[in-house]
């Protein structure tokens, strides 16, 4: 392997830049060339490439987003699109690829590898932490810290007015952010897609909380929770059934994807980038580089795509006890 291409694809996440920097500098360290591919697979199809030396990634370890930009590419889903991408890589002398993204991006990498035998390595970058084979995806820790910081602020106003706040956080299929940030911010209840708490239990818990003398309450709700009502319907439902509560809703939205990565995400990105490049140089391909029990570990892409990242049920119990 003489030249490695790196791209970011799918939703952006804090720590992607630190991972790009790590890939670029690990290539330089091993005296191989590195090419940055703009806008994910779409840039691969359009030949939007740039040579990247170790100085091209100065001062980005601390920046959110991705300097290579990210995109979703319908064209890469077609064999014709992938053929164009392959031809561009061959013309540019690129002979291996590091893909930083989520499971959709890994599926694209796997399909490409099967079609052309092109060596690929994945680095999990998504705030949702919903990828099998790693305890942490890039951006997850930063998102948790962002959410906790914001809920702390919401709590100030909630307790000044004796209000109940429903805070909706990202996570259509996974409750990792809701559960961990909820515990970290001292939420009374946490609703996640993996568990159906049930409306009755929610009302019961809120009643108990009021009776126990709490002056304010925060309920953290993942976008994809199973309770069957969106956050605004839930507000109406609770106000109808518990008139003693004055409910407000806060949907945190895209702010959760931005901001400077935490130290944890920067260190993780640095470690994953080194391992991704060195694994390719060792002749490995079609793996995702992740972290398991604080050790860097390779998981076949296929498993990373198909496997489910389970929620830690003990955390639900901890959350329950904490809201006593
Ligand atoms: P996020 O978790 O933020 O959604 P993701 O990587 O899962 O990130 P997707 O939009 O699902 O994001 O996928 C990113 C890109 O990967 C797609 O736009 C497409 O170009 C490529 N891709 C996804 N699935 C396939 C597939 N089956 N075949 C080829 N390419 C694919």
UniProtKB/TrEMBL annotation:
<keyword id="KW-0418">Kinase</keyword>
<dbReference type="GO" id="GO:0030388">
    <property type="term" value="P:fructose 1,6-bisphosphate metabolic process"/>
</dbReference>
<dbReference type="GO" id="GO:0046872">
    <property type="term" value="F:metal ion binding"/>
</dbReference>
<dbReference type="GO" id="GO:0003872">
    <property type="term" value="F:6-phosphofructokinase activity"/>
</dbReference>
<keyword id="KW-0479">Metal-binding</keyword>
<dbReference type="Pfam" id="PF00365">
    <property type="entry name" value="PFK"/>
</dbReference>
<keyword id="KW-0021">Allosteric enzyme</keyword>
<feature type="binding site">
    <location>
        <begin position="21"/>
        <end position="25"/>
    </location>
    <ligand>
        <name>ADP</name>
    </ligand>
</feature>
<comment type="similarity">
    <text>Belongs to the phosphofructokinase type A (PFKA) family. ATP-dependent PFK group I subfamily. Prokaryotic clade 'B1' sub-subfamily.</text>
</comment>
<protein>
    <recommendedName>
        <fullName>ATP-dependent 6-phosphofructokinase</fullName>
        <ecNumber>2.7.1.11</ecNumber>
    </recommendedName>
</protein>
<dbReference type="GO" id="GO:0005524">
    <property type="term" value="F:ATP binding"/>
</dbReference>
<dbReference type="GO" id="GO:0005945">
    <property type="term" value="C:6-phosphofructokinase complex"/>
</dbReference>
<feature type="binding site">
    <location>
        <begin position="72"/>
        <end position="73"/>
    </location>
    <ligand>
        <name>ATP</name>
    </ligand>
</feature>
<dbReference type="InterPro" id="IPR012828">
    <property type="entry name" value="PFKA_ATP_prok"/>
</dbReference>
<keyword id="KW-0547">Nucleotide-binding</keyword>
<dbReference type="InterPro" id="IPR022953">
    <property type="entry name" value="ATP_PFK"/>
</dbReference>
<feature type="active site" description="Proton acceptor">
    <location>
        <position position="128"/>
    </location>
</feature>
<comment type="pathway">
    <text>Carbohydrate degradation; glycolysis; D-glyceraldehyde 3-phosphate and glycerone phosphate from D-glucose: step 3/4.</text>
</comment>
<keyword id="KW-0067">ATP-binding</keyword>
<keyword id="KW-0324">Glycolysis</keyword>
<dbReference type="GO" id="GO:0061621">
    <property type="term" value="P:canonical glycolysis"/>
</dbReference>
<dbReference type="InterPro" id="IPR012003">
    <property type="entry name" value="ATP_PFK_prok-type"/>
</dbReference>
<keyword id="KW-0808">Transferase</keyword>
<comment type="function">
    <text>Catalyzes the phosphorylation of D-fructose 6-phosphate to fructose 1,6-bisphosphate by ATP, the first committing step of glycolysis.</text>
</comment>
<dbReference type="InterPro" id="IPR000023">
    <property type="entry name" value="Phosphofructokinase_dom"/>
</dbReference>
<feature type="binding site" description="in other chain">
    <location>
        <begin position="214"/>
        <end position="216"/>
    </location>
    <ligand>
        <name>ADP</name>
    </ligand>
</feature>
<feature type="binding site" description="in other chain">
    <location>
        <begin position="170"/>
        <end position="172"/>
    </location>
    <ligand>
        <name>substrate</name>
    </ligand>
</feature>
<feature type="binding site">
    <location>
        <position position="11"/>
    </location>
    <ligand>
        <name>ATP</name>
    </ligand>
</feature>
<feature type="binding site">
    <location>
        <position position="103"/>
    </location>
    <ligand>
        <name>Mg(2+)</name>
    </ligand>
</feature>
<feature type="binding site">
    <location>
        <position position="248"/>
    </location>
    <ligand>
        <name>substrate</name>
    </ligand>
</feature>
<feature type="binding site" description="in other chain">
    <location>
        <begin position="126"/>
        <end position="128"/>
    </location>
    <ligand>
        <name>substrate</name>
    </ligand>
</feature>
<feature type="binding site" description="in other chain">
    <location>
        <position position="223"/>
    </location>
    <ligand>
        <name>substrate</name>
    </ligand>
</feature>
<dbReference type="InterPro" id="IPR035966">
    <property type="entry name" value="PKF_sf"/>
</dbReference>
<dbReference type="GO" id="GO:0006002">
    <property type="term" value="P:fructose 6-phosphate metabolic process"/>
</dbReference>
<dbReference type="GO" id="GO:0042802">
    <property type="term" value="F:identical protein binding"/>
</dbReference>
<feature type="binding site">
    <location>
        <begin position="102"/>
        <end position="105"/>
    </location>
    <ligand>
        <name>ATP</name>
    </ligand>
</feature>
<dbReference type="GO" id="GO:0016208">
    <property type="term" value="F:AMP binding"/>
</dbReference>
<feature type="binding site" description="in other chain">
    <location>
        <begin position="186"/>
        <end position="188"/>
    </location>
    <ligand>
        <name>ADP</name>
    </ligand>
</feature>
<keyword id="KW-0963">Cytoplasm</keyword>
<dbReference type="GO" id="GO:0048029">
    <property type="term" value="F:monosaccharide binding"/>
</dbReference>
<keyword id="KW-0460">Magnesium</keyword>
<comment type="subunit">
    <text>Homotetramer.</text>
</comment>
